[in-house]
Amino acid sequence: MIIRDYFNKLLWDSNSNKIRKEIEIIFINRGVPGNQIRINYNEIIKIHHDKFEYFDSTSEIYKIIPYHRIKKILNSKTGEIIFKKKTLDTDNA
Fold first, then answer.
1. How far is it, in rounded angstroms, from Cα 91 to Cα 60?
2. What string of H, E and C letters represents the secondary structure of the chain?
3. What whole-number distance in Å separates Cα of residue 43 and Cα of residue 80?
């Protein structure tokens, strides 16, 4: 799966309107408890070729996250895992 394509599908496909609020993205963020952050898809402001931007309301800063830092994308309502990064370590997101 190409993450950018999935994000763009959610953005532009009118049939995806109702599930956008259910999609959660878990990504690596060093320095926070557990070294990861979970955001809702609706927090994404802009989708780039190799990264996305979101507004971190806690720090009130716009942040850019490269796609390679995404560990998991899931539907929080159904529990369906849409994407899970394959890793050699035993980390569970």
1. 29
2. CCHHHHHHHHHHCHHHCCCHHHEEEEEECCCCHHHEEEEEHHHEEEECCCEEEEEECCCCEEEEEEHHHEEEEEECCCCCEEEECCCCCCCCC
3. 20
pLDDT 10s per residue in the chain (93 long)? 799 999 999 999 988 888 999 999 999 998 888 999 999 999 999 999 999 999 998 889 999 999 999 999 999 999 999 999 987 655 555
Reading the block at residue 62, the tokens are 């716009």
Report the amino acid identity of residue 9. K
Report which of 82, 63, 80, 58 is spatially closest to residue 72, judged by C-alpha positions: 82
- Joined tokens for residue 49: 């070729």
**CA proximity to 41, closest of 2, 15, 11:** 11
pTM for the whole structure: 0.86
